[in-house]
């Protein structure tokens, strides 16, 4: 299984939350691939670092750079459009950011590892809520 690590999990890892780290390590042991993040997870994590000391920022950016970065392609807006239309029409409220992260994970056949239960609303998405 290839997987995308969501921002909520990145933050827990950076804060040394043992429970999250242990659960993620179990997933990593079952999989030989390098975990991925989307460009949005990269942005959200970097934005959260802006008020930290330069030394702390450097350490956390080094951690962030260990992940493979997934960007959008020509297929991403097609998937995003379908998801947004479907869930808007059915009255399910999802943020555009979450839908875009889900679209990239779906496009790359990745399982999303998250602490955000809102992703459970997206039936097309393989996910694990830690």
Descriptive account of the structure:
With 130 residues, this protein is of the alpha/beta class. It has one domain: Rossmann fold (3-Layer(aba) Sandwich), CATH 3.40.50.1010. The strands form two sheets. It has a three-stranded parallel beta sheet. The longest helix has 14 residues. The two termini are 16 Å apart.
- The level-1 CATH class: Alpha Beta
Number of domains: 1
Structure classification: alpha/beta
Taking strands numbered 1, 2, ... along the chain, how are they ordered across the largest sheet?
Answer: 1-4-5
CATH architecture: 3-Layer(aba) Sandwich
Number of E-state strands: 5
What share of residues are in beta strands?
A: 5-15%
Order of helices and strands: EHHEHHEHHEE
* Fold-level CATH name: Rossmann fold
Radius of gyration: 15 Å
Q: What's the shape?
A: globular
Number of helices, where a helix is a run of at least 4 consecutive DSSP H or I residues: 6
The CATH homologous superfamily corresponds to: 5'-nuclease
Distance between the termini: 16 Å
Helix coverage percent: 40-55%
User: Uncertain regions: pLDDT < 50 for 5+ in a row?
Assistant: none
Mean pLDDT: 93
Major sheet size, sense and barrel closure: 3 strands, parallel
């Amino acid at each position: 299984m290839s997987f995308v690590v969501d921002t909520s999990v990145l933050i827990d890892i950076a804060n040394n939350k043992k429970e999250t780290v242990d659960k993620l390590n179990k997933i990593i042991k079952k999989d030989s691939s390098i975990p991925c993040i989307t460009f949005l997870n990269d942005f959200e994590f970097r934005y959260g670092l802006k008020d930290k000391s330069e030394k702390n920022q450097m350490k956390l950016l080094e951690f962030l750079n260990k992940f493979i970065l997934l960007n959008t392609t020509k297929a991403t807006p097609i998937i995003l459009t379908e998801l947004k239309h479907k869930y808007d029409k059915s009255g399910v409220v999802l943020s555009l950011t979450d839908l875009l992260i889900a679209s990239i994970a779906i496009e790359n056949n990745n399982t999303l590892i998250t602490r955000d239960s809102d992703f459970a609303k997206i039936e097309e998405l393989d996910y694990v809520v830690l």
